[in-house]
Specification:
Helix content is 30%, strand content 23%. The chain contains eight helices and ten strands. The strands form two sheets. It has a six-stranded mixed sheet, sandwiched between helices. The chain has a four-stranded antiparallel sheet with strand order 2-1-4-5, with helices on one face. It is globular. InterPro entries: AAA+_ATPase, ABC_transporter-like_ATP-bd, ABC_transporter-like_CS, ABC_transporter_ATP-bind, P-loop_NTPase.
Length: 277
């Protein structure tokens, strides 16, 4: 199923107040994402990746610049945008079926259509037979599948993923990456993935957006001209992965001036480079 709306981010600036002083979090972010594209965003902790997703999904309204979906300004949360967090955030007292159905709470669909959509999306993430199971009866990977189904059940134009596999073991993570790729190809949905894992970013994304911190801004966008499915052990895959990693080398970082204003507090949390390869 094709989705027709592109996403445009223009001149985006975001700041918070810290002890009465302005702390810039995002600065002059410009990004165009075509309908149906899969874009990965990588960067150090504190570079504003998750804040960027929150602005796209409409969870925050105070910023400068524009966030446009299909040419229309994003003003608050909407059914055309879904989000999956690192923690599945399922309701422990609800079954898998009812957790997925929560994604249709404001959809206004007839009951029969809701039930059909829930069945289809449970099948989409491969959880047939677990409809009546509760979250405590599921593994971490299965719980994330439920969260993905809940985010997709409205058939949004854009799915935002904030470190969705960060808490999973390596084997489960690799399997769910393949499942996410399959869903993306099957549904034709726009996906934006935030991750610390450069290999994951290259494995899934058609482009990798590299961000740098303080304030968060786009350093470079690296295209990934590799056909799907991708082979992690191939020389071509390694070449793209290493090109992204070079942006975080001491030489690459030396080219990026830190724009933190001198009058801000100096005891801000340290940045940790946590990239898995």
């Amino acid at each position: 199923m094709a989705h027709a709306d592109s996403l445009e981010i223009r001149g985006l600036n975001k700041r918070y107040e810290v002890e009465g002083r302005a702390l810039p979090v995002l600065q002059d972010v410009n990004l165009s994402i075509a309908a149906g594209e899969f874009v990965s965003i990588v960067g150090s902790s504190g570079c504003g990746k998750s804040t960027l997703l929150r602005l796209i999904v409409g969870l925050e309204s105070e910023y400068e610049g524009q966030v446009l979906l299909g040419g229309r300004p994003v003003r608050g949360p909407g059914l055309e945008r879904g989000i999956v967090f690192q923690e599945h955030r399922l309701f422990p007292w609800l079954t898998v079926e009812k957790n997925v159905a929560m994604g249709l709470l404001n959809a206004g669909l007839p009951r029969a259509a809701q039930e059909q959509a829930v069945r289809e999306h449970i099948a989409l993430v491969g959880l047939q037979g677990f409809e009546q199971a509760y979250p405590h009866q599921l593994s971490g990977g299965m719980s994330q599948r439920v969260a993905i189904a809940r985010a997709l059940v409205n058939r949004p134009d854009v799915l935002l993923l904030d470190e969705p596999f960060g808490a999973l073991d390596a084997m489960t993570r690799a399997h769910l990456q393949d499942e996410l790729r399959r869903i993306w190809q099957q549904e034709g949905i726009t996906m934006i993935l935030v991750t610390h894992d450069v290999e994951e970013a290259v494995y899934l994304g058609q482009r990798v957006v590299v961000m740098e911190p303080r304030p968060g801004r786009i350093r470079r966008t690296v295209p990934v001209p590799l056909a799907q499915p991708r082979e992690r052990a191939s020389a071509a895959f390694a070449a793209v992965r290493d090109e992204v990693l070079r942006e975080f080398s001491p030489a690459g970082l030396a080219e990026a001036p830190q724009l933190l204003p001198a009058d801000l507090p100096t005891d801000l949390p340290a940045v940790h480079w946590r990239f898995a390869v």
